[in-house]
Amino acid sequence: MATFLEEFVRGLSFPLDHFQYEACRHIEDGQGVLVCAPTGSGKTVVGEFAVAQALSQGTTCFYTTPIKALSNQKFHDLVATYGEESVGLLTGDVSLNPDAPIVVMTTEVLRNMIYSQSRRLDRLSHVVMDEIHYLADRSRGAVWEEVILNLDESVVLIGLSATVSNAEEFGRWLTEVRGDTAIIVAEHRPVPLHQWMMMGSRVYPLFEEESPDSTARPRVNPRLLEAAERSESRGRRRVPIGRPQAIAALGHHDMLPAIFFIFSRAGCDGALYQCLRSKTVLTTQEEAEEIERLVDTGIADVAPEDLEVLDFRRWRAALSRGFAAHHAGMLPAFRHIVEELFSRGLIKVVFATETLALGINMPARTVVLEKLVKFNGEAHVDLTPGEYTQLTGRAGRRGIDVQGHAVVEWTPDIDPRAVAGLASTRTYPLNSTFRPGYNMTVNLLATMDYEAAVSLIQQSFAQFQSDGAIVAEARSIERLQGTLQEVEAQLHRELEHCAPELLDDEDAASLITEYMGIRRDLSTAEREQRRRGLTERHREITTLFARLNYGDVIAMPGAKRPVLAVVVQPAQRPNDPRPLVISEQGWCGRLAAGEFGNPPVIVGTMKLPRGMAKPGRKNTRYVLDHFRRHHYNRPKKLRQRARIKQSAEVKRLRAALRSHPVHHWPRDEREFLARSADRVVEIRQEIARREKKIDGASDTLARVFERITTMLTELGYLRTEEGQVTVTEEGERLAQLHHPSDLLVAQCLRKGVWEGLDPAELAAVAALCTFENRRDTGGEEVEVPTEPLAAAMNATESLWNDLVTEEQRHGLALTRMPESGLCTAIHQWTAGAPLEYCLAAAHASGSELTPGDFVRWCRQVVDLLRQIEKGSPSEDLRRAARKAVGAIQRGVVSLDL
Known about the structure:
Blueprint: H1 4-10, H2 18-28, E1 32-36, H3 44-57, E2 60-65, H4 68-82, E3 87-90, E4 95-96, E5 102-106, H5 107-115, E6 124-129, H6 141-150, E7 156-161, H7 167-178, E8 181-185, E9 193-199, E10 202-205, H8 222-233, H9 243-252, E11 258-261, H10 265-277, H11 285-298, H12 304-309, H13 312-320, E12 323-326, H14 332-343, E13 349-352, E14 366-369, E15 373-375, E16 380-382, H15 385-392, E17 404-409, H16 416-424, H17 438-447, H18 450-458, H19 461-498, H20 505-546, E18 552-556, E19 563-569, E20 580-583, E21 588-590, E22 601-605, H21 617-629, H22 648-659, H23 667-697, H24 700-715, E23 718-721, E24 724-727, H25 729-735, H26 742-751, H27 759-770, H28 787-809, H29 823-830, H30 835-844, H31 851-871, H32 875-888
Parallel strand pairs: 1-7, 1-8, 2-5, 2-6, 3-5, 6-7, 9-17, 11-13, 11-14, 12-13, 14-17
Antiparallel strand pairs: 3-4, 9-10, 15-16, 18-19, 18-22, 19-20, 20-21, 23-24
Keywords: ATP-binding, Coiled coil, Helicase, Hydrolase, Nucleotide-binding
GO molecular function: ATP binding; helicase activity; hydrolase activity; nucleic acid binding
Coiled coil: 470-497
């Protein structure tokens, strides 16, 4: 008689790979599995086997994903296989057939069901956690660990992940907390990935020989290195060719369809419009008509005035010609249309940010990277090997392509050897971001006693990694102490040989190491002084550039004397101001703060006609003639690099160094001993650093949990009776609030500061607690629409101040400060205002929002309002929240709910 696995395999249209078969076999035996395999390798088949097994047993399977778009996609895939009656969908704002035997959901939904002890868990036998490496996500990763730790032991857990370098460590932890877990790691890509570099319109293989199955590190193509050296010596411009020419080159090499990863929304839109301005057409007449039909169907419910705001006509024209942008700033419905058209093969090129690499099934034949640097929200940083692997993993469509292509565009600042290093490092580590929070604390203590909750937290992957790190640090300290003894013995031998007459050995060794310690501290202090000086100088120059006006004449530091220039276009971006100037020498270009070691000086103004920012000899001649005819008070000298003033710490250390006895030893003998003495100091400092790290790491999570428990007890969300910690009625309400500012919202509900607000006002204060301004327009504070709203906002901010004071007193992470940049816009939208009006209101309040941003924040506000509706003790507030949700969900916000 055939096993269920054999029957499952017979129903497939393709044979299973070895890793797929092995994983399914373990699931059939009732064992959990962790499957780590490259993007596009078919690991989701393993999850689908778990779904099929649960159905055959008459039990329930939950299929969890990290993002709603992936949940929607998986829902439709499973409906196509099992029918609408067998599959449900739960994503927070969508609830379809929730009692079905198969339910697709976001991971947060499952976490909430576990804490609320939902009856849907009664028949649960399998949980598939797709993209389980999201556990490392800074903002949401803790949810994955909460689910893994709290799921009933009888549930079979199937984790599907991209390839990670510490899969064995993660698997050991899963075995420890969930029971025996099979670790299945597959490195082989079913569609081989070829690595290339594009130089102009030519495409060079990155490696001399591509041998994906070889364990030897491949050599960089010498022809590519020679071409790069030639191009750099000729001074090729930064971007060798435009996007239309790059697309044409890919088409010539049969590398379409392609995804161009561009690490900014503006860059994606710019690339799209660059192609629109060209003659690029990638579709046939029939394909263009099909695209237009699908697009018009998808936006049928959008108001015409909103389509104007969305620049719909130009977007539709680009789609019909076969190219599109895809980023988080777009309307979600527009993104879904792009995904659908690309999956059907109607669109040939997509310009996307890295959000496209996060699990959506949208592969291409080729992935193009224009840069290997991205902005992470704080600074421009190099791509990691893991990010490179995730992005290029989109290349190669299984069952369609025989090979995929990863193309990096060459520029003078990209070294082919560095690209080869990224391309040949295929794995990256999975590190836990788990930390106890307020909601987690009350939920744990509502279901178990304090000791059990602490024990559960200490079973987290974060603690598992921390404990492993402590062991590794302790071993390192042992090795360092052995090395220290050897170096100290070496120093004593050198003293006996070099200067036995100075002092007895012990005092001499102590003095020379003390002296080298001061020298090390001085070197560190000087570096820090220089860093601070450069930072202050950069800030000073940036401030100057940001306030330069049209016609301002500045004197810039020069080699011999200051150079005069006039501003013909002020800075456009406040955060990175780059004014356009024409100098007295005829040079025209943008100034960047990083190019100056000393700030320029404003020396006057020049009366300029309009349009001087346009390139051309006429404008340059006008400026040069003006500089010849007029006199400006040019400084006699401006240093190209400003002197950095010595700090008090540097002065103190220099004085201590000069007064130290060793400073007066004969120079040759002192410097001969310095190397070993400095090594002694270096090892001692490293041992101290590692010991401090161990002290800080020990039981960190348990300590945080203890401090949170203490604070919540003082605030009345928990109480201690006869040594047992229990949850109060207020704590039960906090347990229902799953929000980054959960305790602040709970305090607002508890204190009644939102009582009496109408639906639009309540939506606005919900936005106050939810919104994070990531693109500040520098707008001024606008008048709050109503007095009750102003009072509620002031009361909320006052409660936040009180809360932060408590958090500081207990040594806890601080709750994010409320931001008012969206309040007026949400208030107006909830009251029925059009999209354009609301975006303008956000801009006036200091928040630059695209329509897609606005929709995303609206949905997050809706999510909080639904929690208020469920958990508020006030019937009036619940009613207002319910009405606010209905009012917000209209037009573009409700388009694809």
